[in-house]
């Protein structure tokens, strides 16, 4: 069987979906804030795998309309939750200095390595 490779850029073209440009480091930060806030978990935005199966349309625009008619406020609510968590992350970031980073690295490399690999091995 021959392997077929499709680039993401080729997938986006038929959808006519814009590809957002995010400044360096911003997307992972927003993603982390989303993980911490749980803003896009099924209990907040719906179970996507079930919803997409129920969706009767065929285009991205139809999906957007269909989804937002059924969940009219969740995009704004998720955005607010992520923004609130990101603000807290930025506040915490202001407390990070070289000494804190050194302590973190030492804890990881020395303490956690010993605990995880040596101490537990002897138990």
Largest sheet composition: none
User: How does the helix and strand content classify structurally?
Assistant: mainly alpha
Distance between the termini: 49 Å
Strand share of the residues?
A: under 5%
Number of helices: 7
Residue-averaged pLDDT, rounded? 91
Oligomer: single chain
Unreliable stretches (pLDDT < 50, length at least 5) are none
Radius of gyration computed on alpha carbons: 21 Å
Instruction: List SSEs in N-to-C order.
Output: HHHHHHH
Q: How many DSSP E strands?
A: 0
What does this structure look like?
The protein has helices spanning 8-15, 26-37, 42-45, 48-54, 60-70, 74-93, 98-122. With 123 residues, the protein is an all-alpha fold. α2 (26-37) packs across α6 (74-93).
Ordered list of secondary-structure elements with their pairings:
Blueprint: H1 8-15, H2 26-37, H3 42-45, H4 48-54, H5 60-70, H6 74-93, H7 98-122
Helix pairs in contact: 2-6
